[in-house]
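Write out this protein's structure.
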Amino acid sequence: MKRVFLLIATNLAVMVVLSVIVSILGFDRWLTANGIDYFQLLVFSAIFGFGGAFISLLMSKTLAKWSVGAQTIDGSEGTTQYWLLQTVHKLADKAGIGKPEVAIYEGPANAFATGAFRDSSLVAVSTGLMESMSKEEVEAVLGHEITHVSNGDMVTLTLIQGVLNTFVFFLSRVVGYIVDKTVFRTERGVGPGFYITMIVSQILFGILASLIVAWFSRRREFRADAGSAGLLGTPRPMIAALTRLGSIASGGLPDQVKTFGINSDSGLFHLFATHPPIEARIAALQGQAR
């Protein structure tokens, strides 16, 4: 339940903050002063919806490093760090993207990639992953994360989130306006009923939006697994890495980067899971091998 709450809270955080700002500055009153102008509201919603999504994307590397305490490495720290850096850069060259920043953080077995640009991304690996896997398995995981970057998954997810934010922003205000006029019978402008209904509607629509984001994230994982197999020339290392992940405690990522990790517990609430079951991912790779 905690994981689901964090997923919903993160997806709604930017929109809630923007909604508060909009209300404080009086934009809602301005938009509804003479009845609701749906086209004007839609344009306004798109500006804030996409603006919030892209602000989050541009801040993603800094927030990701801060949230897990990741430390960027340059290879001079030791043989393990040197190997990790060189492996990431080798895979990046194969994938045709710029060399990412590489970072290590303390935590259970996991890894993630993030960043606004294909040629300026971040790949972070946990100490738990480095300690529990062979070099071949770690390389497969790195190939998975590099594929996320080369496929432009961060930007695509941001665009999807921008569209969803736009309609959450738009529909919550339409519902709030209708309820305020028909139930609370506010005659001029909008009253408390508008703001109460708008906030409740935004939360509910945001939950539905989270389901769509989670579904898209699950689709991306199969592509990233296949991309790792392509970079390494065989799916066997990725199958081995997933098998090991299934047998050890993994996770530990904050929700800001959970969708870009190698693994995320599905738990009871499958519809909110950002990753497919490991068994399904292994089966897909085995099919690719055949």
